[in-house]
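Onboarding guide, step 5: your first structure request.
Type a short instruction followed by the sequence, for example:

Predict the 3D structure of this protein.
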Amino acid sequence: MDQNTTVIVLSDDEDEGESTIYESSVLIVEENEGSREVADAPKTSEVLDEDVTITFSRKAHVLPHARYDCTIPFCFTEGDVTGPEDSNAAYCEQCFCYVCDKLASTCQFWVIPGFCHCNAHKRSFYWKSLRDKRIMGYLHELNFTFDPMDMDADLRRAEASLQQFACSLALKFAAFLVGVEKPKQPICCYCQCHSTNSRTTESHSASGSEVGCKSCRSRHVYFPEYDYSGVQERVCVFLDDAKQENPKSSIVMLLGAMKLIISHSAPGNTHSIKEVSRAVDMLLYRYVNPVTPVLRCRAKSMVQTLLVDTVFPASFTKQLQQFFHGLPFPPSCMSLKNRYRELARYLKVVKSCSVQELQDLSDWAPFYLCKVGDYAGAVNAMFSSMSGSLCPASRLSPAQFCAYLRIFVSGHAPSDMPNPLFLNIQPDPFLSSTWIPVQGGSLLKRLAVVKFALRVLNCNDAVFAQSISWVAFLNIASKASIGPDGAVNCTSLREPDSNFLMRTRDIAQGILNELSKESRIQIPRTFQNGYPDQALLLLATQALALRICHSRLCPALHIVMAFSLNPWALYWLFYSLVGQPNVVLDFLCVVLEELLENPHHSIL
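The system replies with structure tokens like these:
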């Protein structure tokens, strides 16, 4: 081996000896200029004690650092920009400006009054927010709430693209606001002032003076025309560019573009305002290519696709959600959120590798159909399952089950609506306190609603177990009255004769047995003969009897009070349980316990 070759011995052994050196791993390092300088440096020998001797030393290399971390004294203040504090203006060769993130010697605002970056430090909220704003750049102007520490190459690329897009979009929109004057129409009215010869008319036109009387001029008023196509084309190009980026950059660019165009409106006449509103709607949601009949997805649908197909970090997704919720959607765009039927059809055929996310979206398809009055379609969607998964009805919560019953019998629906982008964090729309009438559509017959309820109770254990589900079902089955806000109230029904009760009991038992065995429900036409409303209440009561026999039902007091206007049906319930005395005793004990624990004076 060459005598000049540098050898670094690497070993984890602490023992000193020849065996240790020879058996250890070695790394051969080529000689460089730095090693020569060190070798040529004058050597000194300083004996500190008999065991330690310093043979060589040199000054340590100072790494780049913020000004407040320098060895030069620094005075910490909160957002003082009037002038340098104490010795804050001084700096070494490696001091960096905390705000600009560059050498202090190159900072243009180091000691400028009103800026004074020399006073900046990380302990100050003012200076930290100023640094964050600089790091995030144009994303901060658009009100994105990303952590500046998360500004990676993808976000920086999105920020640069959005800033360039905003500049070019502003120029296009400014040109649009100027408008183009429509050429004057030739004067062809029959006012007396136009009876003069053409030479007089031409002379007035050449001199720029007005032609005709006041009445005549009012008939030839013209307005500038506003052509939004230039803005629209620029936006489409940017959306296409965003689609080519990686998912993280793409989704930020799309949301930023939505923020920039969402408030576009037109001056001038009503026609131009409608045209711009329609164009913005298409850009935000869907844009129909005028050349081909293919429906091209635009900003919002592209965002939805990215959220379904891409697994983003939870914190990043939450920041996107916060940004989207802050977008000031104009009224014209709010109407687009009511395209539930189209979304429901899409969810039936769409496929995705993200099965859980797609299933969560599909569970809302019945609600979208309810919002357009397609109640029969909502019921069908409720029991339509995706390949390899159960139907949406099996995943309903008891509160959602009660809400669907209310929708089907009242024609009212919650004013809130599920946002496909943020299903995991938004409040449940069914829990909304504001219900509004659904425009269009015809309500289901009460028999169809009862069938729906029985099918859900048969396939959904959570709904089957809860008392609130049965209270809502009993109210619906008893020919409920509907309040102005869609609230469902129980009504009183005349007690049927004993023959009808006995006959109905046997038929109801057969209907429920078939449902439990084959998951289908068929009600004979003769079942409702004589007492159609009472027959449905008895069917629901018989189903309740089976539920009570299954396991303890708590709370039970609300169940009993559901029969307050129809006590004959309560008698019929206990008659159905006569063969199960232990079940009846347990049910009554639960009722008594609830009365003792929470005295209900109005009930007593």
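Each response can be followed by summary notes, for example: The mean pLDDT is 76.
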